[in-house]
Amino acid sequence: MPLFGQRPPATQSDSSSSIFSFRSNKSTINKAHPSTNQNAGGTIGQLCVVCMVSTARPDSVFCGTTCMTRAQSFGPHLAALQPTHPLYHTITELFGKGWSHDTPIPVIEKIYAVVAPENRHNFYRTYRNYIESKRKLKSKSVKPGNEQWRWHGTYCGCSITTYESRGAICLAPTCSLCGIIRNSYDIAWSGRKWGRYGRGIYTTCTSSKAADYSRTTPSNPLKAVILNDVVVGKGAEIAGDMPNMTEPPSGYDSVLAIPSKRLHRGGAPRGLNYDETVVYNNSAIRPMFIILYLPLPA
Ligand SMILES: [Zn+2]
Ligand SMILES: [Zn+2]
Question: Domain PARP catalytic spans what residues (predicted)?
Answer without folding.
Answer: 144-291
